[in-house]
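#struct-help
A.M.: can someone run this one for me? Single chain, 444 residues.
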Amino acid sequence: MTVFFLVALLLLSCFSTEATALEAVPSVRGENILLVNTNTDRVVYSKNADEKIYPGGMVKIMTAILVLENIPDLDLEITVYDSALQGISGLTTAGLKKGEVISIRNLLYCMLLRSGADACNVLAEQVSGSTEEFVKLMNQKAAQIGCTNTQYTNTHGLDDDQQYTTAEDLYKIARYAMKTPGFMEIADTQYKQIPKTNLTGTRYYYHNNYMIVSSSAAKVDEYYYRYANGILSGSTPNSGYCVIASAQKNEVGYVCIVMNSERDAETKQRYSFIDAKALLEYAYDNYSYECIIKEKESVAEAPVELASTTDTIVLTAKENLYSLIPSEIEPSDLERVVTHEQDLVAPIEKDTQLGEVVFRYDGVEYGRMALVAQKSVERSTVLYIIDGIGRFLTSTWFRVGIIALVLLVVLYFVLTIYINRRRRTRRIRAAKRRSRQRYRRPRN
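D.P.: on it. Structure tokens below:
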């Protein structure tokens, strides 16, 4: 019976370990990958994310940013010029025609859903007058966003040796786009019917990011991920099959960037979508977004001098701190490393920042929070005066003053002795002169 109990206990222990252990990251085919939690900007998985690569169709995200920032009226209708239709041979287009009149909004759908290179150029000309001038804006914006390894030469992503980016920079651009008003409304649209124009009939487009397309009519069920909500996919000979996929589940968000992936020659499966879906599922299964410390939570006490009613001050968290942590651990498992100012002296105002607490687990930092004074601490007038006297008595100036005083006293005594000796000498000499004069014989 005892043996049976021990075996059962062992099996239960093994089962519990497997249930809480962090799973292995799924095998992926993409060459350049970055998976980031958008609540915290914490990187969950990275593969060659800092390597310079061809951006391919992901260029269109920057094009969309500039259009949305520079054209406030998305219902403005503009005319397609022949110049915008040049240099895009072999690229995916929306079939725009010279002289066609179409709204900015519908051009954005043509660009982001259909991946239309012609729509990119038409929008660029509307913003800057020419694609060349617009590309200058693109590079300026990339630098402003904080991209350090990105350079553009066109508006749509045609392969060019002088056009490059990294997965890290693509994340910065994607996050900026997601915060740009109007972008996610388009980027999260599964299907769009674009009304006919003066030259073209009605257009029907499914989003090219099949991870957000749930319709069986699109025949992409295997890629669909219920929590995905954008953003863009594409492919070129040099960038491979790419996708920037965003997802949101219970207010926890991720962006997964997969670049330089493959397409199966026989099944035609696009591994960029398969990789992104697997990584997003991995993230949601293995990480949780938790409050690791609450606002005003007491963390530590620090000694304080010259206080009227206390000799310590309580340090509390400035605000709530949320962090992405492995699901296998609890917030209470995190090590807290507290640092605070030394030699604190009253008065101290409530909420004054006095220190910091850092949260770690197995050497990995999961966040840090400022520590502030829980309440105001008043200064004791008596202690302040006593302390002032004590500091004065031990100050350098006081010591210099004492030395100077001693030197003056010594000098005074030396001078006094010297003067007295001189006076005595003069008195003795004077007495001798008088004595000689008294006994000197008078002359005849």
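A.M.: thanks! Residues 1-20 have pLDDT under 50 and may be disordered.
D.P.: also worth noting: Residues 396-439 form the longest helix (44 residues).
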